[in-house]
C-alpha cells in the first residue's frame, strides 16, 4: 500500500519544509447511521487528533468491512465527508477506492501531493477520510450491523516521509437496519374497495325494502 507515498519525501525536499514530529494519539472512527431494509444510506470515516499536540499527516489508507451475511453492501466511496476531507480534495491519481465495488469490504487511500506534502491536524481536530455509500437488501434483518475497521496494512496513517504514525487506534461503527414499510398490494386495496362498495349497496337495498322511516 505504501507505493503511493513515494512522492512525499520529494515534496519535502523541494520545499525545505520541516514537519512537526509524528505523535501517537490518532483515532480512526466510523460514524454510525441508520437505514431501512431495501433502502440505502451513507456514513463517514473520520480521523481525530487526540495526541495533545499538532500532527502532520502525509497520507492514509483505511479498510472497512461488514459481514457478508448482513445484507449491507458498499456501493461507492468519495471525499464528500463531514467534517471536511483531510486534504481538501482528492490528491493522488484516481481511483480513490482500490476495491471493486459493490462489495462488503472497502479500502481507500490518498497521499497529500500539494506542497508542503502534509496536512497539520491541531490537537482535538477532526477531519474526514472517506464518505461511504451503501445499500441494504430487502431481506436484511432489523438491528445493528457492525462496520469494522480492519487492522493491518490496509489501515494506516503516515507522516510526510511515508512512515506509519505509531499509536494509531480505530473504532468501528454501526448501521442500524430498520424494517421497511410494506405497502398493500394493489389487489388487496381493490378487494377492500369493492367490499366497501358492495356493503353500501346492500344497506341501501335493505332500506328500500323497509320503506321510509316512520319517525
Descriptive notes:
The protein contains two helices and 13 strands. The chain is of the alpha+beta class. The protein has two domains: 2-178, Immunoglobulin-like (Sandwich), CATH 2.60.40; 183-215. The strands form three sheets. Strands 2, 5, 7, 10, 11 and 13 form a six-stranded mixed sheet that branches. It has a five-stranded mixed sheet with strand order 6-9-3-1-12, with no helix packed on it. Strands 4-8 form a two-stranded antiparallel sheet. The protein starts with 6 loop residues before the first helix and ends in a 5-residue tail after the last helix.
At a glance:
The protein is of the alpha+beta class and 215 residues long. It has helices at 7-15, 186-210, and strands at residues 26-30, 33-36, 40-49, 55-57, 59-65, 72-78, 105-111, 119-121, 126-136, 143-149, 156-158, 169-171, 173-178. The chain is elongated.
- SS-based structural class? alpha+beta
Largest sheet: 6 strands, mixed
Strand content: 35-45%
Helix content: 10-25%
CATH class of the largest domain: Mainly Beta
**Rg result:** 28 Å
User: So, CATH architecture of the largest domain?
Assistant: Sandwich
User: According to CATH, what is the topology of the largest domain?
Assistant: Immunoglobulin-like
Succession of helices and strands = HEEEEEEEEEEEEEH
> How many β-strands, per DSSP?
13
Number of domains: 2
The backbone outline, from C-alpha atoms, is elongated
Mean pLDDT, to the nearest integer, reads: 83
Tell me the distance between the termini.
92 Å
Oligomeric state, counting identical vs distinct chains = single chain
Q: Total helix count?
A: 2
Low-confidence stretches: 1-23, 192-201
